Amino acid sequence: MKSLSEEKFFSGMKNKSWQYYIKHSITTAEEIAELTGANKEEIQKVIDVFPARINPYYFSLDKTMDGPIWKQCVPDVKELSKIGFVDPLNEDEMKHGCVIHRYPTKCLFLASNQCANYCRFCTRKRRVGDLKKNISREEFSQGIDYIEETKSIKDVLISGGDPLMLSTIALEKIIKSLMEIDHVKILRIGSRIPCTLPQRINQDKKLVSMLRKMSSIKPIYLNTHFNHPKEITPESSAACLALANAGIPLGNQSVFLRGVNDNYETMLELVEKLIEIKVKPYYVYFPDLAVGTEHFRIRVEKGMEIINKLRGRTSGFAIPTLVIDAPGGLGKTHVIKDNIIEMNDKEVVMRNYQGKIFSYPQPVDLI
Fold it and tell me: What pLDDT digit, counting tens, does each position of 295-329 carry?
C-alpha cells in the first residue's frame, strides 16, 4: 500500500512536460524523509553539504529501499565521511573561466551547474547544485577566449552539471561559439539526461533537430551515463534512439557502484541492453576519490574480474574499457596488467599515460 506522500509524488506523471518533473522534484530533508522514511535530521546534515534533487520519473524506476535507483539518488549519512578529496582530480587548479584543461589536445567546457537528478556518487559534489557556484557569463566568455587562444585544443567536451538542462537556444549558442573556432574539430556532450530525464529529449524536437543540423558542420558525439539495466526504459530507449537516428553517435560511461552494479550479471545485462538502443558501452570507471563517495567504492580486483568475465560471453563491441581517473589530475588510466605496478589490500600503484606513477587506495568499509 502506497503512503500518501508516494501517491502525491508520483501522481499525474504521464504526459507531463520535462519541466514538470524538475518542478516536482523533491529537494528538502522533510520531503525526502516523508517519501523514503529516512531520518530527517540525518538527511538534513547531508544536504547541508551536498544538495539533493530526486525527480519523480527517475525514482519511479525502482522504489525498492536501498535498491539500485535508491542508492544513486537518496542522500545517505555515509556521505558525511571525511575520506577522500573535495576536488579529487585537481580540476580547480586547471580551470580557465568555465574550461578545465587537463589533456594537451582536449578540454572540458562546464556549461551548467544543474542536473535533472543529483547523483550521490558525483565527482563534482563540491559544486553541482550549489546556486552560489552557478557559471557566470564572465566565466563563459573567459572559457571561449581560452579555447580560441589555445591552438592545441581540438576536442571540447561540453559537460557540467548537465548541459541538456540548458534551453535548446542556449545550448545552440554554446555549440556555435565553439564550432566557430577553427582548431576545434570535434565536440562532445556529456549528459545523464537520456537516463534520468529522457522526456527532455523526447518532447523537444527542436533539440534533436538542432543537434542534427550542427553535427553536419562538425562532428558531435554524446556520452551518456547508465549504471543499471532498470534505467533502460521505453522512455530512455526512445531518447537514445532519437539522438542516434539523428546522426549523433552515442557512448556510455558507467561507474562501478557498490550495491548497484558490482556484479557480472548486472553488468552483462546493462551492456547488452545498451547496444540494443544504439549506445556503445565506452568506459566503466572506478569511483573518483571524492569526499562523500567512499561507501560506493569497490575493490579494483573485483572490477577487473567482472569485466574480464564479459569477454567471450558477449560481443566485443559491448565490452567497455575499465579505467581509473587518476587522483591529482593525472588522467584516465586503463586498468590493465601493463599499467599496474603493484596491487595489495591497501592500494593499487599504477602508471598513467605520461609514465607518471600514482596510488589509488582500495576502499574502506564504512559501518
Answer: 999 999 999 999 999 999 999 999 999 999 999 99
Match 564550432 to its residue by C-alpha cell: 179
The residue type at 46: V
What CATH code would you report for 91-361? 3.20.20.70
Distances (CA, A) of 25 to 15, 52, 73: 16, 9, 11
**Spatial distance between the Cα atoms of 359 and 350, rounded to a whole number of angstroms:** 6
Instruction: Give the start-to-end residue ranges of the domains of the chain.
Output: 4-59, 91-361
Q: Which amino acid is at 7?
A: E
Contact between 285 and 331 (Cβ < 8 Å)? no
Quick one: CA dihedral 165, 331, 358, 351, positive or negative? positive
Q: 364 pLDDT exceeds 70? A: yes
HSE, side-chain direction, 13 A CA sphere, residue 360: 33
CA separation for the pair 115, 191 (Å, rounded)? 9
CA–CA gap between residue 238 and residue 362 (Å, rounded): 38
Q: Is 244 helix (H, G, I), strand (E, B) or coil?
A: helix
Which amino acid, one-letter code, is at 302? K
Q: Residue 162: how many CB atoms within 10 A of its CB? A: 24
Joined together, the cell numbers standing for residue 57 give: 520519473
pLDDT single digits (tens) 322-337: 999 999 999 999 999 9
- Pinpoint the alpha helices (H) of the chain: 4-10, 18-23, 29-36, 40-47, 56-59, 68-73, 137-149, 168-179, 193-196, 199-202, 205-215, 234-245, 264-276, 300-310
291 contacts 125 by C-beta, under 8 angstroms: yes
